[in-house]
Specification:
By secondary structure, the protein is of the alpha/beta class. The protein folds into two domains: 2-210, Alpha-Beta Complex (Spore Coat Polysaccharide Biosynthesis Protein SpsA, Chain A); 230-349. It contains twelve helices and seven strands. It has helices at 12-25, 45-51, 68-78, 98-105, 127-142, 160-166, 177-186, 212-228, 230-254, 260-283, 293-321, 326-349; strands at residues 2-8, 32-38, 57-61, 83-86, 110-114, 156-159, 193-197. The chain has a seven-stranded mixed β-sheet, sandwiched between helices. The model has no long low-confidence stretch (mean pLDDT 94). Bound molecules: guanosine-5'-diphosphate (GDP) and magnesium ion (MG). Magnesium ion binds next to loops.
Length: 353
């Protein structure tokens, strides 16, 4: 059975049309239910839904809780299907791709309605809006293993088990539930996602609820997901690498009797190799990597060394030219080096296939 979950807030004008359109798109022989989760909308969206007499359609009217993310989670909790589909009420998500989504869901964990793969579009968007949207998607892509062009899509289908596996972790505070689900899934196993293109349509009635606050929430959510996922692993690896570096430096100098500068060069290289192995087998573990092992190793090594040069350059620049205290300059240098390493490795060394 397919459970279609539609969160609503003040969508009286379009909800019924959206439900009808979705019903028409679901293949005749498929069992389904539609669950509208409404946050006690002042325009009485809940009433419109309950007056729509169809046993397969139900409305959850939440009186206390508010928010898109938690509404979708509520829908998941109510859902009885093997597959869950989430879509907007406002007509932006074209349900005619549902049959294609259903075709792919058996073999995938996520099937994503995508504006940004071939065949997909967001025609009524201005160039700037499109650019913003793609920019906002970039950090989201970098915290995912699976290659996804539209990680912020609100139109997606999942296997029920994806929800079951992650229901303890997921908060619903952010409004990008799919992204949250993907990040938490990828902490547990390799996932498979398929993007199905569709043409994003203009909102039919009413107004978007997303404003500046949403943007801030999005930033916070990304930061928290990053810390819980890949970025934390990357930082931990780096810290462990420092210990390895110091240990090898000490051992080679004290026990092997090497000149300490020679020990340091060897220690740096060993620490880089150490970091590479952790990042390859842990931080970016589940990503299907495009480059072979040796190429990855060389790429990782190159950016690590380049990062050190840039670190020293920044130390010099901020101390001599800007006049900062040298330890502060060094902290800035380390930060710049770490960012360079992270993004280089994400976009190049461990680039996804
Ligand atoms: N239950 C519930 N639904 C919401 C809330 N905010 C937005 N929605 C619904 O979530 C969907 C997406 O919201 P929308 O404003 O269209 O976002 P946009 O498409 O990004 O502009 C629509 O169906 C909204 O009615 C909320 O706080 N609670
Ligand atoms: Mg919308």
């Amino acid at each position: 059975m397919l459970s279609v979950i539609i969160p609503t807030y003040n969508e009286k004008e379009s909800i019924i049309r959206t439900i009808k359109e979705a019903q028409k798109s679901i293949p005749r022989n498929s069992k389904y239910e539609v669950i509208v989760v409404d946050d006690d909308s002042p325009d009485k969206t809940w009433k419109a839904v309950s007056e729509y007499k169809d046993k397969r359609v139900k409305c959850v009217r939440r009186r206390k809780e508010k928010g898109l993310g938690s509404a979708v989670l509520r829908g998941f909790r109510e859902a009885k299907g093997k597959y869950f589909l989430v879509m907007d009420a406002d007509g932006q998500h074209d349900p005619s791709i549902i049959p294609r989504m259903l075709k792919h869901i058996e073999k995938n964990d996520f099937v994503i309605g995508s504006r940004f793969v071939k065949g997909g579009s967001a025609k009524n968007w201005s160039k700037t809006r499109l650019l913003y949207s793609k920019l906002a998607a970039m950090p989201a892509k970098s915290i995912l293993d699976e290659k996804v062009h539209d990680p912020m899509s609100g139109f997606f289908m999942i296997q029920r088990r994806v929800y079951e596996e992650n229901k303890e972790d997921i908060t619903g505070k952010g409004f990008k539930i799919m992204l949250e689900l993907m990040v938490f899934s990828e902490k547990k196993r390799r996932i498979k996602a398929k993007e199905v293109p569709y043409a994003f349509r203009p909102r039919r009635e009413g107004a978007s609820k997303l404003g500046i606050k949403t943007l801030v929430d999005y930033g916070l959510m990304l930061a928290s997901l990053a810390v819980k996922g890949r970025v934390l692993k990357f930082v931990l690896t780096g810290l462990l690498g420092v210990l390895v570096n110091l240990g090898v430096l000490y051992a080679l100098t004290e026990y092997a009797g090497l000149y300490y500068i020679v020990s340091a060069v060897i220690a740096i290289e060993i620490a880089i190799l150490h970091n590479f192995l952790w990042n390859n087998y842990w931080t970016w573990r589940y990503r299907k990597k495009e480059q072979g092992f040796v190429k990855r190793l060389l790429s990782f090594n190159t950016v690590a060394l380049a990062g050190m040069v840039i670190n020293i350059a920044a130390l010099w620049f901020f101390t001599e030219i800007i006049g900062l205290w040298y330890l502060l300059s060094q902290a800035i240098g380390i930060a710049i080096g770490a960012l360079l390493n992270y993004f280089w490795n994400d976009m190049w060394t461990f680039k996804s296939k």
